[in-house]
Design goal:
heterodimer, A: 106 residues, mainly alpha, two-stranded antiparallel ribbon, 4% strand, B: 403 residues, 13 helices, globular, transmembrane (chain A)
């Protein structure tokens, strides 16, 4: 079993792995939990904004401000998703069109 | 047709076969929650997922031509074969590794267990590499750092994100009228599941493309430089995209059932939170320096959505069986890969390659026939989970014993 150790080239980059894991967790929290939360906020505003008979039986008027808030939430979500897809496709886009989508990211 | 070319053809066919199993093994990662909650009809779900996998396969030109370098030492940094390794040996290693991957994928599918297709492929390659080159041919640090550690971390990361997402989503949407809430979250589910499908096509089809490219490089009909400069030949991209999409459309119903019904009884807000967590991680993790397996992430997310919903029950026993399958994937696929390499090497040349191909076809057919005896398909995928046996086959489909 000695050869296992001797023949391994280089060593495992533990700090690098740790950093990557934390980055994945943080980015995941922002997009993977943050966006669903925003979507739920949008749904709630939309529900409040359209008025009618609420869950507890009270009748409410339509609220344009809440509806606008809902629209904003949904637009933000779509924008975030589009950015995410462009990020994944950035090399393909650069390859076929020469457009650098995120200049800072290489 | 020379013997080399016949072997190359068999390897390419086997690689596409692996891609196909990769497709149906992973349909559930994207679509199980949408099918379970009724957000999408089963047949519609697999069709949508298949189309998005097809599109996804064309989305990224980043070629995984150095696919084996994390686990083996048979490629240099550019993707060319390392010095001292003959093309024929490299081709046999790839061939045997692919067979190990396919057979393990089929076996876990038969048991309805979502295990990682990447791990199955890596396991097969490691086994074949060990048999061919000994321990010196294996990149142990790469296996630990790039395969094992991410595999251990991913379900926890995905689970935590999905649990927080689920908790917040329920808290925020508590007062929304039930019908509107259900409708809203079903749309959210369809959107997030679509993203997971797209990400899957982008990431997983690349692996097979890389394996086929490596086989062509080993054969001498493609050079690592030409891949670097001009990308892959279009036929490789096209066939890999089609194979993974066809596999996805076939739908691994047994695995969809375990993921959608077995782990947690899923409601649409949970489904959306789970798929959002999966989509976010799968799309970004490789850019952040840690490529995570779709399967481990998706399973972690679904478990997390059960943990995050107050009052939900998670069937930890079913999760435990999955973890067992994950732990055994690398060694089991490795044993098959090593055995296939040994057989091919002992017989040698074209007869050796034909023999292991015949073994693959025979065992794959056997498992397919076994699956037909206790069929899970789009008609019974959502039937109640059997709390006694935890079998992926619904109780009402188990054939009656003959008197």
């Amino acid at each position: 079993m000695k050869s296992l150790v001797v023949k391994s080239a280089g060593s495992i980059d533990w700090p690098g792995i740790g950093q990557s894991a934390i980055k994945v967790l943080l980015v995941g929290l922002v997009f993977g939990a943050g966006l669903p939360a925003l979507y739920a906020v949008g749904l709630r505003l939309w529900d409040a904004g359209t008025g009618g008979v609420a869950k507890d039986g009270t009748v409410t008027k339509a609220n344009p401000l809440a509806l606008a808030g809902a629209a904003l939430a949904f637009v933000l979500i779509v924008a975030a998703v589009v950015c995410g897809l462009l990020l994944v496709m950035k090399k393909t886009i650069a390859h076929y069109t020469g457009w650098t989508v995120f200049p800072g990211l290489g | 047709m020379s013997a080399d070319l016949v072997i190359l053809t068999l390897v390419v066919i086997t690689a596409l076969g692996f891609d196909f199993t990769n497709g149906f093994h992973d349909t559930g990662n994207a679509m199980a929650t949408s099918i379970a909650t009724g957000a999408l009809k089963p047949k519609v779900a697999v069709l949508v997922s298949a189309i998005l996998n097809l599109v996804g396969a064309f989305l990224s030109v980043e070629v995984a031509a150095t696919i084996t370098k994390d686990v083996l030492k048979i490629q240099s940094a550019t993707g060319a074969l390392t010095a001292g390794l003959t093309g024929a040996d490299a081709m046999t290693i790839i061939f045997a590794g692919l067979i190990g991957g396919i057979l393990w994928n089929l076996f876990t599918w038969l048991l309805g267990l979502p295990s990682s297709s990447s791990h199955a492929l890596f396991g097969g390659l490691i086994g074949a590499g060990l048999a061919a080159l000994g321990t010196g041919g294996v990149n142990w640090n790469g296996i630990v750092g790039k395969v094992l550690v991410p595999a251990v971390l991913s379900p926890f990361i995905a689970g935590l994100i999905a649990a927080i997402g689920t908790f917040v989503v329920y808290a925020v949407s508590k007062r929304v009228r039930p019908r509107r809430r259900e409708q809203g979250f079903r749309w959210g589910q369809v959107g997030t599941a679509s993203l997971v499908s797209l990400a899957h096509g982008t990431g997983d089809a690349q692996k097979t493309m890389g394996v086929i490219a490596l086989a062509l490089i080993a054969h001498g009909s493609l050079t690592a430089d030409s891949v670097k400069n001009d990308g892959l030949p279009v036929w490789i991209i096209l066939t890999c995209a089609l194979a993974i999409a066809l596999g996805t459309y076939l739908g691994g119903w047994r695995i969809i059932r375990t993921l959608g019904k077995g782990l947690v009884e899923i409601e649409s807000p949970q489904g959306m939170a789970a798929e959002a967590s999966s989509a976010a991680i799968i799309l970004t993790s490789s850019h952040l320096g840690m490529a995570l397996s779709t399967t481990h992430v998706a399973t972690g997310s679904i478990l997390g959505s059960g943990v995050g919903k107050p009052g939900a029950t998670v069937r930890w026993g079913v999760a435990g069986r999955m973890v067992l399958a994950w732990l055994t994937t690398l060694p089991a696929a490795g044993v098959v890969g090593a055995a296939c390499y040994a057989v091919a090497h002992l017989i040698g040349g074209l007869p050796g390659a034909l023999t292991i191909f015949a073994i693959l076809v025979a065992l794959a057919s056997w498992m397919y026939l076994r699956s037909r005896a206790q069929k899970v398909d789009h008609t019974n995928v959502n039937h109640a989970w059997d709390e006694q046996t935890h079998s992926p086959t619904p109780a009402d489909r188990v054939s009656e014993p003959v008197a």
